């Protein structure tokens, strides 16, 4: 998605529709080209301004909910509760927009290890795309 709008409605609509990237039209051409290549390689990319919208929306949503009991949770919350500490770290890094190389550098592991964790996250959280992992992280 390439747009001038980055309000909540556009961002969540694009993510729900399966967008693998959400950039604003003021994105530098080199970043746009790099993003196309990253998406083609299976990654998802969010403009930092968009990430802020998603985080703000999640905080608003979370503030109105009581803290779930992970032991009693089913669905995505229960699945997230069953993740290993490292899988949670990878999920958080991915949700913050990190590419596989970025996550590998941040966690001081190999890129193949990050890919293996992402594969496990997709399976455990019953998701098919990296974008869906981001949504699950914020849910």
Description:
With 139 residues, the chain is mostly helical. Helix content is 62%, strand content 6%. Helix 6 packs across helix 7. The chain is globular and about 40 Å long. About 6% of the residues have low confidence.
Quickly list its features.
139 residues, mainly alpha, 3 strands
Can you lay out the helices and strands and say which pair or pack?
Blueprint: E1 2-3, H1 8-16, E2 21-24, H2 29-40, E3 45-46, H3 48-63, H4 75-81, H5 85-95, H6 100-107, H7 111-124, H8 130-138
Parallel strand pairs: 1-2, 2-3
Helix pairs in contact: 5-6, 5-7, 5-8, 6-7
| Share of residues in strands | 5-15%
Main-sheet strand order equals 1-2-3
Helix amount, in percent? 55-70%
Structure annotation, total helices: 8
The parts where pLDDT drops under 50 for at least 5 residues are 66-74
Q: How many beta strands in the DSSP annotation?
A: 3
| SSE string, helices as H and strands as E | EHEHEHHHHHH
Radius of gyration: 15 Å
Question: What's the short story on this structure?
Answer:
This protein has 139 residues and is mainly alpha-helical.
């Amino acid at each position: 998605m390439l747009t001038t709008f980055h309000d909540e409605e556009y961002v969540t609509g694009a993510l729900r529709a399966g967008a693998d990237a959400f950039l604003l039209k003021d994105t530098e051409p080199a970043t746009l080209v790099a993003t196309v290549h990253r998406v083609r390689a299976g990654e998802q990319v969010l403009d930092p301004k968009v990430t802020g919208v998603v985080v703000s929306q999640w905080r608003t949503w979370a503030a109105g909910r009581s803290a779930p009991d992970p032991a009693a949770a089913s669905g995505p919350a229960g699945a997230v509760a069953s993740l290993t500490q490292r899988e949670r770290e990878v999920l958080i890094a991915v949700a913050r927009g990190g590419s596989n190389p970025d996550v590998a550098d941040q966690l001081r592991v190999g890129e193949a290890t990050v890919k293996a964790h992402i594969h496990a996250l997709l399976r455990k959280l019953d998701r098919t795309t990296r974008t869906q992992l981001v949504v699950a992280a914020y849910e």
